[in-house]
Amino acid sequence: MKKFILLFSLGLLFLPQLYSQSLDELLDKHAEAMGGVDAWKKMHAHIIKDESERNGITYRSVLTVKLPNKVRIDLETENWDRIKSYDGKEGWIMRNDSLKPMPEGEDKEMAEEAEFHGELVLAKSRGHQMSYEGLAELNGQKVHKIKMAKSELDEQFYYLNPETYLLEMISEFSEDVSWKGVEFKTTFADYRKVDGLLFPFITDLYANDRLLRRFKTLEVKLNVEIPDWVFEKDQNIIRRNMRLFSKALVEGDYDTVIDAYTADGKIFPNNAPIMEGEADLRAYWIPPADRKSKTSYHKLMPEEIRIMGNEAYDYGYYEGKTKNTDGSETSWKGKYVVIWKEVEADVWKMYLDIWNRVRE
After folding, report:
1. What backbone phi and psi angles, to 5 degrees, belong to 37?
2. How confident is the model at residue 155 (pLDDT cuts 50, 70, 90)?
3. Distance separating alpha carbons of residues 103 and 240, to the nearest angstrom
4. Could you report the per-residue pLDDT of 102-129, keeping only the tens digit for each?
5. Is the peptide bond before 273 cis (omega within 30 degrees of 0)?
């Protein structure tokens, strides 16, 4: 009996030792568990693809980050898409055809999103004001609670597992005025190693303890080369215009197809003279009434978009399918170059459109 009492007593004596670690020790052990400070410092960019579901709707999202502070989030469903982007100076939101600046505070949160996964790992080296808040209870277990204060209005709390030293949860109040008074909690699970660094592959987001969405990570790419234009407002307007052009072409909305060009827009089809102006464009794009085949799929895939004042160029590849009268489909692809003009603020249209097929 004394043996069991002794073991029990030793267990009680061990618990305070387990939890009486200094803030520096906790941060060091967390950094080591996540892959190490040096490895995280070498990480300069990443792309994370997620999928989530809510009310029967599937959401697909892509987080694109270029350190120190360029962030873009693409979110799409079957019926709509949204891009939120911060280029290091300003943030904006595009949903379908509408474009607007980010609400107050959201641009700051977007900038912080760049270091979301590695922020606590690098906290010591970046001199963030931090304090150990003692033990807290989370899902029936004791966890270490750490406070990080970047400003009077920006405080975050981190909850570390005392055995793995991995993050269990982050909590904070939003700086976005539209979410004033709402406490957001983000929980993490299913950690996996990607190129030596640990990332959670299941992330749950709560608002005032109400589950908003569960994100399941599909892919993580680290240290990919991401050009700055990915985060610029104008190039994303152009990318949206490409999607709308393809959509209109498939749906037979030829007014939208023609409107994608400037009034003096020119096209350079294969084995044909240069065609210019609305009449020529309509003659080319609108099929004869007796044609039974139709374009069933079309997609533009830009390799580069470069903005130069109120003009821009982009080049890349396109692919598509034609549905034949017998129900079969013929696939095709090609390459293209487009010169764009900004005809008015935030309105970009094609001025020169050059393309030709490539062999399968």
Report:
1. -60, -45
2. confident
3. 21
4. 887 788 778 778 777 888 999 888 777 8
5. no
- Reference 168, options 135, 195, 194; nearest CA is 135
The DSSP 8-state label assigned to residue 227 in this structure reads -
> pTM of the prediction?
0.74
* Average pLDDT over all residues of the chain: 88
Cα 241 from Cα 85, distance rounded (Å): 17
Residue 196's region, left for phi above 0, alpha for psi from -120 to 50, else beta, is left
> pLDDT tens digits for 218-239?
999 999 999 888 898 898 899 8
Name the H helices within 105-253.
Answer: 106-113, 233-251
Q: State how far the alpha carbon of 166 is from the alpha carbons of 14, 25, 181, 189, 296, in Å.
A: 21, 13, 28, 9, 48
Which has more pLDDT, 203 or 174?
Answer: 203
* CA–CA dist 251, 295 (Å, integer): 8
Angle at Cα 238 formed by Cα 236 and Cα 240, nearest 5°?
Answer: 70
CA atoms of 200 and 167, how far apart (whole Å): 9
Long-range contacts of 32-36 (CB under 8 A, 24+ apart): 32/165, 33/164, 33/165, 33/166, 33/198, 34/118, 34/121, 34/166, 34/197, 34/198, 35/121, 35/193, 35/196, 35/197, 35/198, 36/196
The identity of residue 98, as a single letter, is S
pLDDT, residue 176, reads 66
Answer whether the bond into residue 101 is a cis peptide, omega within 30°.
no
